[in-house]
Structure formats: C-alpha cells, structure tokens
Amino acid sequence: MDIGFDTIGNATLICYDKGPVLTTDPWLGASAYFGSWILKHPIPEEQLQAIRECKFVWLSHGHPDHLHSASLDQMVGKTILLPDHVGRRIEGSLSEKGHIVKILPDRQWVALSDRIRVCCIADYNQDAVLLIDVNGRLLFNMNDAGDQGWAKSVKKTIRGYDTSFLLKGSGLADMANFYDEDGHFLPPIILPSGPFLANLADSFGVTHFIPFSSNHYNQRSDSAWAEEYSTSYDEYHIGFSSEQCQILPPFIRYDCAKDTFTEIAVTAIESIVEAPEKFGDDWSTPLDKGDFAKIEHYFHSIAHLFDFLDFINFRVGSQDHHISFNKEKFHRGVSFEAPRNSLMTCIEYEIFDDMLIGNFMKTTLHGKWSESKLYPEFGPYITKYADNGQAKSKDELRSYMEQYRRRAPLEFLMHRLEFHTKNTFRNYVTHDSRLYSIVRGLYHRHA
Q1: Could you tell me the residue range of the domain that residue 421 belongs to?
Q2: What are the angstrom distances between the C-alpha of 214 and each of 33, 96, 144, 171, 440?
Q3: Most exposed of 141, 255, 337, 348 (fewest Cβ within 10 Å)?
C-alpha cells in the first residue's frame, strides 16, 4: 500500500504513506471487560504486522476495547498520541509504563508524514474524535463519541473535501443490564441502525460510511444474554438510505491514490460461552473486611451524588451493603449486584465504567430516574468527570468544565443548552415512541 488506509478489528484504522504510519485504538486480541468482550473477527496477520510497524498510535479514550493494555504492551517504542483531556490521567498512566506519549493540541492539524496529517478534538465526556487527511481524503473517526459541541466545526472541515468517510458504531447493547424493583429484566431498546446512521452521515455531509467500533461479542455466561440485542453488520444496511453517502463493508483496504477499495478477508471466531470464574469472578465470594469502606469512600468522594441520589446498595456474595447520601431518605437509589473481584478492581483503579459496560453487573433503579436511566446524572459524574477527569468536588468540576469551555466558548455553550433541552425531552418522551424517532431524525438532518 503506497497511500491509503485499512479498517480492521474493533475500532482500528491503519493509515499508510509508503508504509504503516498511524494506527488507532489497537485491540489486537484477548478479551476486555474482565473477559466479557472478545473480538468477533480476529485481525489477520498482515494487518497485525502493519499495526506493529506503525510509528504512531492514537487512543480515543480509556475503555479497554480502545485502550487495550495487553495490546499496547506490544507497541512499546511507538509514539502514543492522546487527546488533550483535562486530568491527563491516561498520559500519566502510560508514561509510568515507559511509553512515549504526545498530547495532540486540540483542534490543530499535525503532520505525521508527507501525505498524512491529523486533527484531534477532545470533549468533556473524556472522549475524542480524530480527523485524518490521507492524500486529500478525509477520515472522520467518530468511534464511540457523540457530539459534545464539536459537530459544527467538523462539518465545516468535511465540506472542504470531495471524498470523506465517517467511521462510527451503532446498535450496541452495553450498559444495558437493568431490572425493575420487582426483579424483572428490562430489555434494552435497540433502534434500527440503518436510518440513524444514514441521517448522521448526511448531517455531516460525508460521501462514505464505514461500520466501526462494534466488532465484539459477549462471551461470559453472565453477559452472553446481550447477544440477543446485538446488531450485525448486515443490519447496518437495512434502512440506510442516502443520496450522497455510500455504505462500505466494515473491513476494507482503501487506496487513496486510485479511490478504489477491496474487502479484507476475515474469519468469525467460534462463539463460546465462558464461565466468569475463568476471569477471576466468583459470584459467591463476599466482600473482604475493609472492602466496603473503600467502596463507600469511592462514591462519597463524588460531590454531585449528594445532590442527586439518596442511596446505593451493593449486593456481593448474596450480602447487601448500603451507602447513604441523604440519611432517612429513600426516594431515589440504585442497587448493583456484582462479583467481588471485578468490582474491587474497578474501585481500586477508579474505572467503574468497566463494570457498567461489561454487562454482567445487574443494576436496579429505585424511584424516579430519567428515560435514559443512569445518564446523565449518575454515570458521567462518576466514570467521565471523576474517574477519568479527576474532578470530584464541586470546585473541581466547575474548573474541569471551564477548561473545556475555553477551547470553543460558543460551541460549548450552545451544546450545553441543547444537552439540557434534549434531556428534558427524554424525561417525557420514551425512546420507543414514534414521536421520539421523528424528532431524532429531524435533529440529525438539521443539526
């Protein structure tokens, strides 16, 4: 490959300029989320070798299907490119392990070779998008991110290119293991991906869409239930209707000199259900002495929870452990049933998102919550702002948001206004209603 790119793995790009130059979010094999996730289609040897030869590795965010520690161990000596996130937690962790780390300046183009340059935009949700110019063709690596105020800038950039690609995942049943107070499972609502992605692609004005960031299956016996709600790549095509955007296969090699592509042949891994004990999780193991104090300290350190929540209950090894935020009040709370090993690992390393996304922890909501369940008053304050951004007190959180606001003041303020408006709408209109589908389609067409 003289000049072009491959899409492979879960959220991995390989960009070439007379050889491999840049790869993104390399998850090369093994599992993630305490054994819960594994790649559906292993990466072929040719692409594995190219990934290992890349000079630069870009990481979008800290989830283990994007920042996969065992895979990064194979990339020692490469330059790790990171978004400019407040808190710099990932930078510190990787530097301690001996990696060469470079922070990409926000919203600025950086040349990586004669014909490849990148522009990274970090957002307050501790996610990021990457714009990649490969020989005058633009790749918009959106991975798992949602617009946090950067969409208008990205659209303006895309309009300057005749050939552009949106890389985005959809239809993932994660953070979905919810039960009502009577113990009944609440099935996740997975809306059709095709119409959503076509609207999204048209709203950004891209000429091509490539399915991305969705190449895994749930393999643990306590998370395999989620496979019933997963979206296949074939389903991405259903209802994908656009006059300007062509949907491409998920694994391709694209020649950025000839504007042609070929599919990369991949094999599907045999689906095997594994016991959680294989990954260190025994559901019958209770908390050790001192474990609960660590859990309580972890959640009590996050000031916002005292304004929003009354209690959290953890059931571990069939024993309940109650954390109070507002004594004598039980109007709004949440119960988590989880195995000790993974839970305490997440508490120790402050990565509670891994418990939610892994789909094996059972979550029960008590009292009035939004239609979006743990979002936006619970999950982001813990997993994004506190864990990754290290903003736990109210003063720290104000400073955290202010630093992101300063980067693009008008876009930030307009987004926050839209954010609050949309969440108010979600409180009154359910995801499975016709009105919700109509409004969402209109929003993505005109945003």
Answers
A1: 408-446
A2: 15, 30, 9, 8, 22
A3: 348
Amino acid letter for position 201: A
183 in the same domain as 141? yes
> What do you get for the CA distance between the two ends of the chain, in Å?
37
DSSP code, position 315 = E
Residue type present at position 120: C
Do 390 and 419 lie in one domain? The reply is no
Among candidate residues 348, 340, 347, 217, the one with its CA nearest the CA of residue 276: 340
| 169 and 299 belong to one structural domain | no
- pLDDT tens-digit profile of 407-431? 999 999 999 888 777 665 455 455 5
**pLDDT tens readout for residues 13-47:** 999 999 999 999 999 999 999 999 999 999 999 99
87 part of a folded domain: yes
* Residue 286 to residue 283: CA distance in whole angstroms: 8
Residue whose structure tokens are 């800038």? 153
Between CA 300 and CA 294 the distance in angstroms is 10
